[in-house]
TrEMBL record:
PANTHER family referenced in this protein's UniProt entry, alphabetically: RAB FAMILY, RAS-RELATED PROTEIN RAB-7A
InterPro entries the UniProt entry points to: P-loop_NTPase (IPR027417), Small_GTP-bd (IPR005225), Small_GTPase (IPR001806)
DNA-binding as UniProt keyword: no
Subcellular localization: Endomembrane system
UniProt keyword annotations, A-Z: GTP-binding, Lipoprotein, Methylation, Nucleotide-binding, Prenylation, Protein transport, Transport
A GO-annotated cellular component: vacuolar membrane
Family listed: Belongs to the small GTPase superfamily. Rab family.
Pfam families: Ras
Single GO MF annotation: GTPase activity
Topology in the lipid bilayer: Lipid-anchor
Lineage, broadest ranks: Eukaryota, Viridiplantae, Streptophyta, Embryophyta, Tracheophyta
Protein name, as recorded: Ras-related protein Rab-7b
Amino acid sequence: MASRRRMLLKVIILGDSGVGKTSLMNQYVNRKFSNQYKATIGADFLTKEVQFEDRLFTLQIWDTAGQERFQSLGVAFYHGADCCVLVYDVNVMKSFDNLNNWREEFLIQASPSDPENFPFVVLGNKTDVDGGNSRVVR
């Protein structure tokens, strides 16, 4: 059997406060969900190993606070990121409208070598709230 090559990938999750960044990360990594809301202070990260073909990837997923007062921490947390996940709440139009601000702030603070081709993923969250009746972003 061929030896597996391991690679570390740093993923940053950004979006307004309360859009569900922590819940998404916990669901993806631990398969656990909690209805209780607890704001993230600063940043936290979890790791998950994923195999693709003959390679093993360790995803270091950074969950950041959505509050403006923590954005100054960005340079340290964003540095060396390989991907950025932008999250919005489908029931709050402003959280969707703010995605471009999050993207721009990330590019300024992370200073990726090729900003035009840096990988971003956009996730609409909370589609299950109110049976979908509160949804404003379609």
